[in-house]
Each structure stands twice: as C-alpha cells, then as structure tokens.
Write a structure and sequence with these properties.
heterotrimer; A alpha+beta (369); B mainly alpha (280); C mainly alpha (305); A: 369 residues; alpha+beta; Rossmann fold; 6-stranded mixed β-sheet; 5-stranded antiparallel β-sheet; 9 helices; 25% helix; C: 305 residues; mainly alpha; MetI-like fold; 0% strand
Chain lengths: 369, 280, 305
C-alpha cells in the first residue's frame, strides 16, 4: 500500500507544484495520475520515486516512511517518457542492469533478462544496441528493464506520448497485461484521458497541484465532481450550457424556461449555473414539440460514418451533438444555410455546476443509476 | 556516390583545381623541408638522425647532445598533463553540470572568463609564484602551470557534454539501483566519451608542442624538452645546426603528432570549439 | 526544514570535493598570478627581486617611451590585417570545400592539409618559414627565384619584409580553425535555400553573398572576435621568427611585455604593459558577450512575435 500524506513541493522561485496532496493506493491497483501540463502529476511521480525531495509531507510504502530514502532503496521500477536506455549497452545488458546493481551474477541475470524479454516479445533484439531499435521496441526494452527486478511498484511517466496512434494501442495492451500478470502496483502519469480510462482501476485527476477527484473511470465519467473533471473526461467533451436557476427546480437557458429533472444537493435558486450534458444524450429535434426546448444554431455538420456530429451554438455556449440518424444530413445542411432550425432538450441525465465554484450539485444518491 | 548535375560536376572540378593550387605552397614547404632530413651533401642518408642514438658531431666541431633526455622529459610532461587534465576536468565538469551547490553560478561565469583570458600575459607573475613555492625550474612546476591554464577550457567542454546528457538517463541509473557515483562510472562516463577524447587529443597536442612555458619557466639546461632542445639549435639570426639536421629532429618530434592526428582525425574535423587553438 | 538544510550542506561538501583539484590549481597558478600581475605593475620589481611600490610610474614610462607608439601601430596593423586575411581566406576555403566540392573525400583531403600548420609545433613551424625565406642561397624561395632568373640576388626576406612575413605565417597557421567552423556552419544551411536560389537563377557569387554569408554571420562574428583575441595575446610565432625585429618593426604589444620582463628583467614594467593589454582584452570580451546576448534577445523576440 502506498500512502501519500500532505505532500507539498515548492520551488525557490515561489512556484508551488504540489500542495495538500493526499492519496492512498492499494496493492496491485493500477492508478493513473491524469491532468493537463503543469498540473503536478510528474512532480508527484518523481517524489514517489525519490528523484525529487518534497518540501513537506510523507510517503509511506506499507506503513514504512520512505520519504528520505534514495530511489535505489525503494524497490521501484520506472519507465521514462524518453525511455532513457543506456546507449552503450546492448539490449540484454540494458535489461539486466538493475539486477547487476543488486550483485546478481552474470549467468543468472542474463537468464532473467531473457525471460522478461520473451514475455514482451523482444528476445530477437537482445544483441542490438538501443540506437538500432524503433520507438516501440525501445519502449518494450524500457519496460523489461523496469520489471526485471520484480519491483514492488511500477512507475510510468507518460510512456506512450512519443508513439503513433496505432503503437499506443498496442503498447497499452502490453502494459495492461503485464501489470495484471505480475500483480504489481502501478502508477501511470498521462495527459490522455482515453489512455487513463483504458488502463487504470482508479484515476486521480490533477489540476494546479491538487487532486480534483480520485475515483474509478466510470464514476469520473458518470459523476464528475466539478467542471474541470467533467470537461476533461470523455470524447467528444461534455456540452456546457450556461443558464440561471430562476427558482427551485427551474432553469432559464437562453431565455427559455426548462424544468430541472434531476435531484440537487442544494438550493441554488438565483445562482448562475452551467448544465453539462453528454453529446449523445442531448436530445435534438427539428420541431419545437415542447415549450421547454431550447433553440440551437447549427454551424457545422460532419458525417463520421457511424453517426453525425453536429456543432452548434446555444446562446453563447458551443454545443456538440452526436446524432445517429444519418438520413437527416441534408436537412441539417440546410439548417447551416439558415433555412431551418433545430431545438435541443437536456435529456434525462445531466450535471449541474454552480458558478463560480464549478462544483457539481447533482445528488447522485437519489438519481437513477 | 552523389548524383551531381553536369554543371555541378564542372564547378566541383574547378574548385578542386583551385584548392590544389591554393594548398600547393604549404604542401611543398612541408615535403621539401622534411625531405631535407634524408639528404646530406646531396646524397641520400640517414646520418642526420644521429642525434637519436648518441651525441652528434656537426661540421663546425660543435656537438649536439643526444635527444634521449629531452624526449623523456617531453613524454613525462605530456602524459602528466594530459592524464591530469582529463581527470580533473571530468570531475569539475560533472560537478558544475550536475550538482547543485552554493557558488555554482559564480564559478560557471568565472569559467567563461578564464577560458578566453590571455594566459600568456601572466607568465611574469607565474614565475614569481613558482619561485615562492620552491618549484621553479622543475618539470613538476611547469606541469601545474600548464594544467591551470588549460583546465578552464577543458572543463567548459566537458561541462557542456554533461549538460547534454538527458536527465532521464541519470534518473534511470538511480532507480535501477545505482548511487550517484556508480551510475557515473557505469553509464554517464560513456556518454561523455567523445568529450573526453577531444580533450585528451588537444591536451596532448598542446603539451607535446609547448614551448613558451619551458622557455620562461625553466633555466639552465638541466631539464630539456623537445621544444627547447630544438630551439637551442635554431636561434633566429644564426642557425647552429644545418637545416637537414633540424628537419630530422622535426620529423622525430612530429611523429607522435602525426600518429595521433591520423587516429583521431574524425574528432578534430568535427570542429571542436574551445580547445582547439593552443598548440604552442 | 532541517531536512533541507542538512542536504544543502551535504551537497556543498560533495560538490566541492569534485571541484577541489580544479579550484586549487586554477587559484594558485592562474588567478593568483593574474592578481599578482596587477600588483606587480605598480612596483619596480626587477632582477633584484625587491618589491617597492612605485605607483603609476611604470604606466608613465610606457607613455613616455618613444617606442610605444611604434609598437602600438604595429600591433593594430598586425591584428587588423591578419584578422581580415584570415576571415576572407577562411570563407574562401569553407565555400570551396563545402559548397563547390561535394565529394567528402576531396574536402577532407584539403582540410587535412590546411590543418598541418596548426598541429605543427611552433619551434618547427618557425624554422620552416626561416628556411623557406633564408637570406642565403640555401633558402627555398631564393633558390626558386634563382631557378627562373639566373642573375637573381638572394634576398633576406625576413629582414626586408618582416611584417608581411609574420602576417602570412600567422594566417597560414590560423586558417584551419575558422575553415572548419565555417564548413560545418555552411553544411547546416537547409538545402532548400540553395534549391530556391538555383530555381530563381541566382549566380554562384550571389548565392555566396545572399545565402551563405547571412546564414553564417554569427559564426563569422565569433571567429572575428576569437582570432582578434588570439592575435592580441599570442606572440609566440613572432618571437620565434623575427623576435620583434628588425629594430622593433614587428614588435607587438604582448611581445614587448615579454621582452621587458624576461630579457630586460624589468618585471614590474613588463607587468604594467601586460595589464594595459589585459584591460583591452577584457573590454573586447565584454563587448562580444554583450553583442551575443543582444542577438539572442532579438532572436527570442522574433520567435515570440
């Protein structure tokens, strides 16, 4: 079990990269640290690895305080964004390197390296030097090197950001299967939310050096705690409609009165709100069959093959709608030209965020599953 | 093979001819001069190299001492300077590049100034320092001075090489179980090998060819080196030894230089900035 | 907080352990002499090794010395002429061997030959020139001229044209460095600039003028400054070929400091001459640093714009 308590990292230039950071990771869990650039995720990883000294706070591995321990004493394996292979050593020696540091004899460590290389299907490359390998191959070597010493914890610092889309998916599978097979606790740092959702058991979303929400991918998707999380998760991103809570249970969006059909935790009457609806849950029709429908101006229509993607404006808010009925394409094109109009509704499931705090005030305990 | 157009090929050929004409005087100068070493009174001979084996008699009855002592001193001096320079600049360059400590910025700025500073102008005071430390007129003293003059330049070069090593590779050694030092020994050193080689080459060339330090900091004839040995016979106004003998000495003197040059030609060609100029 | 303090002190000890040989050597034999030189310049230190403070007396002597003007003139002429020749020839060589000659083996061949003078030890290099220009019949040039014109009288080239001789000798030695730097600079000019120019029908001369030179301008500035610094302070070849003669015709500032100190044994006076030169050198270095920073700032602005 990894516990991070009150971690703070501040630099001499008064830049605070991490503050009041608390996290607990169970053995065998795969956790992702997700967030935009500069949010402090790499800083956290480096503190866990021992490559950075925190300004304040503690890190405990299974109850033992390792905050002051050197990286070599923490029994960790790490895969770097640049792979950081040793250019003057062969692939075999690269992988065997950690075992050499432990004092394991040549025969034994080469054998262990071979086993691991076989697992990642790179045994045919063992005699080569890193410069002779492709990006994907180097990545696998880096992974072998990280796991060959059977570490307690596996750390991955944006390991796939230098790979093309197809390779990314391939390596993702490799990482997932390795982690499950070895049952090693893994922490991955990434800015790609799809990657995080695919790999991790739990995701910690970071922004500005603080954890915004720490939950399973599904919960983050279905019950985002605030605007930042809601905006970050999901592709295409969530739609946000700006409005006001004019009375208990009634919104006003772009001049239209819309009843609020989800239970709320607090009374937000009089407050400005943002209503977040997923692109495929936003109802769209060509007639105003309901007084509560909100007009939308269509700007672009894209045919994605499996559905249509409609971009438009509701008031000042940009909206994206996934529309499954492709036969309506010509009709929508006419709307773009101004010869027709569409109306949207909020659907059954949506989020309500108060402004300026950005907190989600939907009461999920009462909402339907 | 490059694919050149007709006009490009023509231009290249003209350029080649032009360059040949341009370097011809230099080539001539070297070939003819060193060719002199093999002739005496119009005949081909190796007699001009007699100084290698023992004292040599010149036509006008003067005797030249054998080259052995000068050769030995030059070798000791050069090896001493080169090995020390590589080691010391490696340590210092690593510290300046990788370690964080107070005064780091000051020393780094100092490095920039010192590597371009005219060291030759300080010989007067250097002599005094050596006298005070009782090491004047010793080979050891000259080694220390040569080192001090060259270290800022070499350290700067090595520091740049260290700067170029990705942080991640270093961090990787730490995660893989190394201490700072064992990581350095097993990995980092290999990554700066080209830097080490270039420093070693320039250090060797400079130390082997050095003249002025010996000229000013050593008196008497107790510790000759190759440069002072040869110079003693070639004062500007009066050549004590005939050109053929000097040419022979020149060949002996330059053999290590040529050998080194051929071996490390690649490094010198890559335009190594900073260490290149001091072959005096 | 204590955790941080401890580690800072520990880091300092570790770092200075790495740095100690460097610091000791450089302080004792480089920095200390530098300071000492300045101090010396205010004393009348000579062969008797008595330190007596004389204030600005040495500097006054420099200004009052009738030779000073000659020496100054020599120095400036030497530096300017040599530096310009080096720049022009270096560009010539670089353009020839990198742009016109596309074959690597020929280019390497020529560069190797040009490097020869640079790696030749000065004591040998100077003898080469002395022999080449020897006043007697045995001198190479004299023999050559005699070959074409039998009534040709041998000329003492070094005595007659000492200035030209030291300039040429220094130029030949200095060529390799700049040529290599310009060469690699030219090689890194993106190919499409040349292609575009060819398509536009530019002549070779125009290409050199409008593409090559502007692209390597920072390198040209660097070499100009680097060579100037070297020319100001390196007096070895002059010492070995003409020794400042005849009659001070090739005596340059740095050499005069050497002569005053080690031949005349006037250490204090020699130190004063050195100090003045050091001041000029420092000013030049500052100027160059300033110019480079200025250019870097301008480039940053251009990038952000």
């Amino acid at each position: 079990m990894i516990e991070i308590k009150n971690l703070k990292k501040a630099y001499a230039t008064n830049v605070v990269a991490l503050e009041k950071f608390n996290l607990t990771i169970q053995d065998g869990e795969f956790v992702a640290l997700l967030g935009p650039s500069g949010c402090g995720k790499s800083t956290t990883l480096n503190c866990i690895a021992g490559l950075l000294d925190p300004t304040e706070g503690e890190i405990l591995f299974d109850g033992k305080d390792v905050t002051k321990d050197a990286p070599k004493d923490r029994n960790i394996g790490m895969v770097f964004q640049s792979y950081a292979l040793y250019p003057h050593l062969s692939v075999l020696d690269n992988i065997a390197f950690p075992l050499k540091q432990k004092g394991i004899g040549k025969e034994e460590r080469h054998e262990k390296a071979r086993i691991v290389a076989k697992k990642l299907q790179i045994e045919h490359l063992l005699g080569r030097k890193p410069a002779q390998l492709s990006g994907g191959q180097q990545q696998r070597v880096a992974m072998c090197r990280a796991i060959v010493k059977e570490p307690h914890i596996l750390l991955l610092d944006e390991p796939m950001s230098n790979l093309d889309a197809r390779l990314k998916i391939e390596i993702r599978e490799v990482i997932k299967s390795i982690q499950q097979e070895l049952k090693v606790t893994a922490i991955i740092v990434t800015h790609d939310q799809e990657e995080a959702m695919a790999l991790a058991d739990k995701i910690a979303i970071l922004d500005g050096g603080r954890i915004q929400q720490y939950d399973t991918p599904d919960m983050l998707y279905e019950q985002p705690a605030n605007l930042f999380v809601a905006n970050f998760m999901g592709n295409p991103p969530m739609n946000f409609l700006k409005g006001k809570m004019v009375s208990k249970g009634m919104f006003e969006i772009d001049g239209v009165e819309v009843p609020c059909s989800v239970p709320l935790c607090e009374d937000a009457t009089g407050k400005e709100v943002k209503i977040g609806v997923r692109s495929h849950m936003t109802g769209m029709s060509f007639v105003r069959d309901d007084a509560h429908r909100i007009p939308m101006k269509v700007r672009i229509v894209e045919n994605l093959g499996k559905e249509l993607l409609v971009y438009g404006d509701v008031g000042l808010s940009e909206v994206r709608i996934s529309y499954p009925d492709k036969s309506k394409y010509p009709l929508l094109r006419e709307c773009v030209a101004g010869k027709g109009e569409v109306w949207i509704s909020l659907g059954k499931k949506y989020n309500v965020f108060t402004l300026p705090e950005g907190m989600n005030i939907v009461d999920f305990t009462k909402a339907g599953a | 093979m490059l694919d050149l157009t007709h006009s490009e090929k023509k231009k290249q050929n003209i350029a080649i001819v032009v360059m040949i004409l341009f370097v011809l005087p230099i080539v001539f100068m070297f070939i003819v001069f060193f060719g002199l070493a093999f002739f005496k009174d119009g005949h081909f001979t190796m007699k001009n190299f007699a100084f290698v084996l023992g004292p040599m008699q010149l036509r006008d009855q003067t005797t030249i001492k054998p080259i052995g002592l000068a050769l030995r001193n030059s070798i000791i001096f050069t090896l001493g300077v080169t090995c020390s320079e590589v080691l010391i600049s490696l340590l210092a360059g690593f510290a300046l590049s990788r370690l964080h400590f107070t005064g780091r910025k000051t020393i780094q700025t100092g490095l920039l100034v010192l590597r371009m500073f005219p060291t030759l102008l300080l010989l007067i005071a250097v002599l005094y320092v050596l006298i005070t430390l009782h090491i004047v007129n010793t080979l050891k003293g000259v080694v220390l001075v040569a080192l001090a003059f060259r270290l800022p330049g070499s350290t700067f070069i090595i520091k740049n090489f260290f700067d170029g090593i990705p942080r991640d590779v270093e961090n990787s050694t730490l995660v893989d179980g190394c201490t700072r030092f064992s990581g350095f020994r097993q990995v980092i050193i290999y990554l700066v090998k080209p830097g080490i080689v270039s420093i070693a080459v320039f250090s060797f060339l400079s130390a082997w060819s050095n003249f002025i330090l010996f000229n000013t900091l050593l008196f008497g004839n107790k510790t000759p080196v190759m440069a002072t040995y040869i110079r003693a016979l070639t004062r500007n106004e009066q050549m004590i030894a005939p050109y053929s003998v000097v040419a022979a000495m020149g060949i002996v003197y330059m053999i290590p230089v040529i050998v080194f040059f051929i071996i490390t030609q690649k490094q010198l060609m890559e335009g190594n900035i900073g260490g290149g100029k001091g072959v005096s | 907080m204590r955790f941080q303090e401890e580690s800072v002190k520990g880091k300092n000890v570790q770092a200075y352990a790495f740095l100690s040989p460097f610091l000791i050597l450089v302080s004792l034999f480089y920095i200390a002499p530098a300071i000492l030189t300045i101090v010396m310049s205010f004393t009348g230190l000579d062969g008797s090794f008595i330190w007596e403070f004389v204030g600005f007396e040495n500097y006054r002597k420099i200004f009052l010395d009738p030779n000073t003007l000659q020496i100054l003139k020599n120095t400036i002429m030497y530096i300017v002429v040599t530096m310009l020749l080096i720049l022009v020839l270096d560009l010539f060589i670089a353009v020839m061997t990198t742009y016109f000659i596309k074959s690597d083996s020929w280019a390497s061949f020529f560069k190797t030959i040009i490097m020869l003078p640079m790696i030749t030890p000065s004591v040998i290099y100077s003898v080469l020139w002395i022999w080449y220009l020897d006043a007697s019949d045995a001198g190479f040039i004299n023999t050559l001229f005699r070959f074409f014109n039998h009534s040709f009288q041998p000329v003492n080239w070094i005595a007659k044209y000492p200035f030209q001789v030291i300039v040429i000798a220094q130029v030949v030695v200095a060529l390799a460095y700049g040529a290599i730097i310009f060469s690699s600079a030219i090689r890194s000019i993106p190919d499409n600039q040349f292609k575009a120019a060819h398509v536009d029908g530019a002549s070779e001369w125009e290409i050199v003028k409008s593409i090559i030179i502007p692209n390597i301008r920072p390198h040209i500035k660097f070499i100009a400054m680097w060579e100037t610094l070297g020319l100001m302070t390196n007096y070895i070849n002059i010492l070995l070929i003409t020794n400042g003669g005849p009659l001070n015709r090739t005596e340059v500032w740095a050499l005069s400091a050497y002569h005053k100190a080690f031949i005349d044994q006037q250490y204090g006076y020699g130190a004063a001459i050195s100090v003045l030169l050091i001041l000029v050198v420092l000013m030049l270095m500052l100027l160059f640093q300033f110019a480079t920073k200025h250019r870097q700032m301008k480039e940053k602005e251009a990038e952000n714009a």
